[in-house]
Amino acid sequence: MSRSEPALIDGRALSAELIGLAADETDPQRRRNRVLGRLKEVLRDGRALAEQRLRAGQNGIACARSLSDLMDEIIRAVYDVAVHTAYPVDNPSAAERMAVVAVGGYGRGMLAPGSDIDLLFVLPYKQTPWGESVVEFVLYMLWDLGLKVGHATRNVDECIRLSGGDMTIRTAILEARFIWGDEKLFKDLAHRFDTEVVAGTGPQFIAAKLAERDERHRRQGASRYLVEPNVKEGKGGLRDLHTLFWIAKYFYRVRSGDALVEAGVFSRTELTLLRKAENFLWSVRCHLHFLTGRAEERLSFDVQREMAVRLGYTAHPGMKDVERFMKHYFLHAKDVGDLTLIFCSALEEEHAKQTPLLNRFFGLATRRRRRKIAGTSDFVVEHDRINLSEGDVFERDPVNLIRLFHLADKHDLAFHPDAMRAVTRSLKLIDADLRENPVANRLFLDLLASRNQPEIVLRRMNEAGVLGRFVPDFGKIVAMMQFNMYHHYTVDEHLIRSIGVLAGIERGERSQDHPLANALIQTLQDRVVLYVAMLLHDIAKGRPEDHSIAGARVARKLGPRLGLTPAQTETVAWLVEHHLLMSMVAQSRDLGDRKTIQDFAAVVQSLERLKLLLILTIADISAVGPGVWNGWKGQLLRTLYYETEPLLTGGHSQISREQRVAAARAELSNALGDWPAAERDAYLERHYPAYWLRVDLPRKVAHAGLIRAADAEGRSLATAVTVRSFEAVTEITVLAPDHPRLLSMVAGACTAGGGNIVDAQIFTTTDGRAIDTISIAREFDTDEEETQRALKVSRLIEDALSGTVALPEAIARKAKAKPRIIKAFTVETRILVDNSWSNQFTVIEASGIDRPGLLYELTRLISDLSLNIASAHVATFGERAVDVFYVTDLTGRKVTNASREAAIRRRLAQVFDGPPAGEKTPVKKA
């Protein structure tokens, strides 16, 4: 690449200046300090100029090359000072020669601001005292400049011997570039490396590099669509490009992209695409290093917004500036992945596979093992990979662009690299005619709802660009990320993963995690609508309007095209429009409140829709990212399903509330049959109707035992721990004198103890005591460890309620110790006060930015507002908290006064946002 801008420094002038500085000083230490001081200025000024040019619009490759040039000149100048002033030799022997060589990434002539400097000092023979002194002088000078230097000192024979047995050393020398010293030594090394190491070992090197790439992808998360990608090591990142160029240099012995075109590896268009991606990635990496002041390779949430600003992105309707930046990042990563996959797969196919023994001995060309595929003459199988029978297969019949993927799924075949390259070069054939073609749509629908492995084939279809062109609305969300901590993948990757989860449920692979869904999916009247809805449920993300409503419109338009009946299309549209409903109700509503179930059933309307919505919700949550799905969410969804099913089937009993209370009392009385009758009868009088209707029998029995034991010991305060492994939560039951701030203090103690509350049920007994059940998210794998943790939290709760622990200080310490990635996000605060969601309670929904101690502050304020909390339901979606409270006033009635509702909204909003300027929120002691 031509360097149109002047170099960051004048190397010749620098070398002369430093030699002059050194010559003027006789004391070695002062001489060294003078040279070092000047070098620090040069390095600082050079980097500042490089960043200035980058921010002014210089491309990333130019920046990386200019930084490499800067380092070259500094190393040359340091070397000159070493050999001319520090350790001069008037009449050097043959052994007193040295070549300073850049290897590794530095050898490519490109450096990011924080990159390591990898050097090889090449000697003609064994090390001499002179050589050792020069190397030490250069290295210590570079280290004192604050540089990270990787180095080795070897003679040529050692370089050849070690690179023969060590693939890392071999790769480093492959990238070797002469910097300074004795160039003849370097040329000797390069020649011997070519003839003694590289010759005849191409397949071995290719196989090693491909295996190394696969292992790196596995460590980085196996997806290029992680929303905090690693620019260097991640899938589709710079290291994938390095792998491509290493193999190209090694096998084709080329030093440029143009030579790869001449060798027939890439077309000119593909090379242009690769260069654009490389330039973008280098721009991102250089900006990232400059921004963070270190060799940071991960685009974490806390830097993404500033990176978007640095790179000149602006917001568009429906998409933030940072989301547009990250979308472009993933599109370039996709290009890198597509092209390197084609390149590496082709090499693997051609060179890394063992050829038949006879052919290896006689050098004969390997005959391709081909077999036909039943029902088609356009495709064949080569080495268990589907390939084209002729080069014009797609031009003759564009439907073959869909049929290729359908056959791959049907026959469980991998894709031949030649076929994938032909696909990417034929994308222009996917036009309006093909999109409306009934055969193409039938094949696509069969693939989408396949009973095999649709996720794998759909992902390849997406990576090849076919899926986004065949379904243009899908193309709009390809590589789209959502700037939040909840979603781990881009939208397209999430949709494809959700198809994989759904197929796994249908195959019975997730029966332990999803027992109800696993059973219900076998009873569906129409499984196809579920797969179509799964693909489309987030397809309208990134638009200014609600993506669920916009997605339903997409479904109504696409359904007929895919061959769905009007009834099927309407079902798909309904599922897309309501795909968040069941999750929202299950996680943030009181499932023991009859009104919740009635309202939900009124929307769902049929048992078949309930089944479909449950399965879709489970697959959706499970595909969000690792750790997002847990047993607690599964239990909530199952409870909502079982509570709603009777209303939709007409089997719900219409017995009165009084009758249900009486039945629950009788049920517990029977369970406590070993108690004395008088004691049992007295206990049954201690609970209000709400308790009898909202608590299941096992918990009622456990509560009775806890209260009985506390009474016998004369304790007013007691706790109990129950680990619920399947639900992935641990329950802490607290018995204490009723107090307006009880839940607040319990929440604060849980926060201080590291317990993440997900649900709370609060009940008061007739004798003025509270029996609260707090569910905290499970942390440890074993029940023993989890029990010990929960016991520590429960002891902290007891200490807080007895006044021996200062909660505000304990919570502040916990908040300080917790990483604050959340500060990178902004979340709109929403406070809803609604009297229609429950017949008995006013429901407060508070959502906004999450932080340690939030639930403690919210519950404390609700108590300050003279409200009683009957139940609390806590959900966290990444950085966004949604906390819902079922409350009454102190007389047990709903809050209906408009001015009081406004005051509740205002005060709760201040917990998230702080008081308005000039207004102070009164602080009360806990």
TrEMBL record:
The lineage of its organism: Bacteria, Pseudomonadati, Pseudomonadota, Alphaproteobacteria, Hyphomicrobiales. Residues 491-613 form the HD domain. One of its GO terms (molecular function) is [protein-PII] uridylyltransferase activity. Residues 1-372 are annotated as: Uridylyltransferase. It comes from Kaistia geumhonensis. Residues 731-813, 843-926 form the ACT domain. It catalyses: [protein-PII]-L-tyrosine + UTP = [protein-PII]-uridylyl-L-tyrosine + diphosphate; [protein-PII]-uridylyl-L-tyrosine + H2O = [protein-PII]-L-tyrosine + UMP + H(+). Its EC number is 2.7.7.59, 3.1.4.-. This is Bifunctional uridylyltransferase/uridylyl-removing enzyme. Keywords: Hydrolase, Magnesium, Multifunctional enzyme, Nucleotidyltransferase, Repeat, Transferase. Its cofactor is Mg(2+). SUPFAM superfamilies: ACT-like, Nucleotidyltransferase, Nucleotidyltransferase substrate binding subunit/domain, Poly A polymerase C-terminal region-like.
